[in-house]
TrEMBL record:
It comes from the Bacteria. ATP binds at residues 8-15. This is Hypothetical ATP-binding protein UPF0042, contains P-loop. It comes from Thermobrachium celere DSM 8682. Keywords: ATP-binding, GTP-binding, Nucleotide-binding.
Length: 291
């Protein structure tokens, strides 16, 4: 029997996660009081295999009942039942934005600021997070991307990598993205902007991509950068990092940085990393005032 306990921060995506699990055949229960977990597991055992994939959401909505979670987990262990904990997390600013957009109150708000409620919730969830089998940071994930991550774990059985990597192109003239962990400057590569037939295209167009990658220095840069990232990624995972944002910058963020970001994204994806791509400034300067 596969028994998954879904928990995590309010607003981090537990509802979407339980829907994804239900879609792939899990019997799901939302907001089950922790004290009832052992009894529910016992009932599932008695189904004689009719219910063999179970997912339950347990979170801070249970208020004081949530404090019984560890006693319940101990009961499952005493029963010899193996379980997994799937923990959903997100950055504070993302959680605040989600609550404001949904116009819902945080379960612990009680008239307080959302920031304070999130801080208290993080403290109360520290111990359960430390026991998690999988931690997914949904800060940058769309619903479709979250579903892909769930499917990787529970359908394809792929080795789960908790680090979500975002490769983003940008233009230095518009400033370095504030959330970048690593920044690479590719302005040393010949600029397609000065080629009339490429000027109004972007790095997503084959003609621009081919121009950027016809230079030896471009291919060497991508090769060495990919090698560096493959060295860094397992060490970031070991350190507990859940998000890695890699910035690739050229002057305007439309030609060179886009093409190179796409190639690095492709390399990391082919190496089975969880990776996203974004192009912050690709739609700017379309009229052509400089790259």
């Amino acid at each position: 029997m596969q028994f998954v306990i879904v928990t995590g921060l309010s607003g981090a995506g537990k509802t979407q996660t339980i829907r994804c699990l239900e879609d792939i055949g899990f019997f799901c229960i939302d907001n089950l009081p922790p004290a009832l977990i052992p009894k529910f597991a016992e009932l599932c055992y008695q189904s004689k295999g009719k219910i063999d994939r179970i997912a339950i959401v347990v979170d801070i909505r249970g208020r004081n009942f949530f404090d019984n979670i560890f006693a319940s987990l101990k009961s499952l262990e005493d029963m010899g039942l193996k379980y997994e904990i799937l923990f959903l997390d997100a950055q504070d600013d993302v959680l605040i934005k989600r609550f404001k957009e949904s116009r819902r109150n945080h379960p612990l708000s009680q008239g307080r600021r959302i920031e304070d409620a999130i801080l208290e919730e993080r403290k109360r969830l520290e111990d359960i997070k430390s026991k998690a089998s999988h931690i997914i940071d949904t800060s940058r994930l769309t619903v479709r991307q979250l579903k892909e991550e769930i499917n990787k774990i529970y359908i394809m059985g792929e080795k789960f990598e908790s680090l979500i990597i975002t490769v983003t192109s940008f233009g230095f003239k518009y400033g370095i993205p504030l959330d970048c962990d690593l920044v690479f400057d590719v302005r040393f590569i010949p600029n397609p902007y000065y080629i009339d037939e490429l000027k109004r295209l972007s790095g997503n167009d084959k003609a621009v991509f081919d121009y950027v990658f016809k230079w030896d220095e471009t291919n060497k840069f991508v090769e060495k950068t990919t090698e560096l990232l493959e060295f860094l990624i397992p060490n970031y995972i070991k350190e507990g990092k859940s998000q890695l944002v890699i910035g690739i910058g050229c002057t305007g963020g439309r030609h060179r940085s886009v093409a190179i970001a796409n190639k690095i994204y492709e390399n990391l994806k082919n190496n089975n990393h969880t990776v996203l791509i974004s192009h912050r400034d690709i739609t700017k300067d379309i009229a052509g005032d400089g790259k």
